[in-house]
Amino acid sequence: MDDPERVRARLEETGYLVDEGLAITCFLALKLHRPLFCEGDAGVGKTALAAALAEALGAPLIRLQCHEGIDASQALYDWDFPRQLLHLRAAEAAGVTDAERLESELYDRRFLIARPLLRALLTQPSVLLVDEIDRADDEFEAFLLELLSEHSVTIPELGTLRAEEPPVAVLTSNRTREVHDALKRRCLYHWFDHPSFARELAIVRRRLPRVSARLAEQVTALVQALRGADLVKPPGVAETLDWAEALDALGANELDADLALATLGSVLKYREDTERARGLDITAVLAARGG
Fold first, then answer.
1. Looking at the predicted structure, is the pLDDT value of residue 173 above 90?
2. Are strands 127-131 and 61-65 parallel, antiparallel or unpaired?
């Protein structure tokens, strides 16, 4: 993909629609081998971008889901202790007494368990998704910064393992806390906002072509209205797709206020938001879209 327009076209072939700014950012990430830092509310397409890039590149998607307390051993590598112990017992049963030989065999690559970060370094090509980096702590951020800068890792028992071709790295953040500037400076940055009505409708039509055009337009209009209702958790594009898919599963070709209220659980996940939605003039929103 040798220019931004080609990147945009390839992503759209996977069903992921991008604007010019995101297409340019993705192109630069590929061209310059720089990580892509995607920030924005949940459900706006950050994780889906990594999956689309993997499909467009024909590369495996390797995902690291961050959480509070995650450390290098969970993200990088570990040793398969049960298999090492079995090997040691088998060697002893065979009469092997050379301690140096046994130690070298125990820390062989065959006993190495590659976690997502190491798998991404050793897999060419690959797309590495570091999802919700804002849930990890400062120490893990520092460790990740070093790994993304060097594209290598040193394992004391084996030496340094270096990526022949750096993985395409996509980091996502829901901004539950601020990620340190040092990590952001290493990356190309893109803020994911909620899409306009026209763009969101295009996404729904592309991702769910079996849904009627009328239903897709009505669902998109309602989600756009809900985002303006001061909700605890405004719905993202993912929830728009969920709602449209749920309504289609019910056999609906269009939406009315009663059906919308009955299926709010597909798009809203907080009791307070459901109560606010019930105060919305759904009929008026649908009427504005010809409902």
1. yes
2. parallel
Rounded alpha-carbon distances, angstroms, from residue 228 to 48, 193, 223? 24, 14, 9
From residue 101, alpha-carbon distances to 91, 98, 246 in Å are: 10, 5, 61
Segment among 3-17, 47-61, 73-87, 126-140 with least mean pLDDT: 73-87
Beta bridge partners of 190: 38
Taking Cα atoms as reference points, which of 68, 180, 50 lies closest to residue 120?
50
Cis peptide before 125 (omega within 30 of 0): yes
The radius of gyration of the chain's CA atoms, rounded to the nearest angstrom, is 24
Spatial contact of 51 and 238, defined as CB atoms under 8 Å apart: no
For residues 68 and 5, give the distance between their C-alpha atoms in angstroms, rounded to a whole number: 38
* Cα 151 to Cα 174: distance, rounded to the nearest angstrom: 25
252 burial (CB, 10 Å; 0-12 / 13-18 / 19+) is: buried
**Which among 8, 3, 33, 26 is positioned nearest to 18, based on CA atoms?**
8
Structure tokens at 281: 């003039």
- Residues whose CB falls within 8 Å of the CB of residue 17, separated by 6 or more in sequence, listed in order: 11, 199, 202, 203, 206
Reported pTM: 0.86
Q: Are 185 and 34 in contact (CB under 8 A)?
A: no
pLDDT per residue as tens digits for the range 221-238: 999 999 988 899 999 999
The pLDDT tens digits of the residues spanning 148-161 come to: 888 988 888 888 88
- Residue 185 is predicted with a pLDDT of 92
How far is residue 169's CA from residue 61's CA, in Å, rounded to a whole number?
A: 10
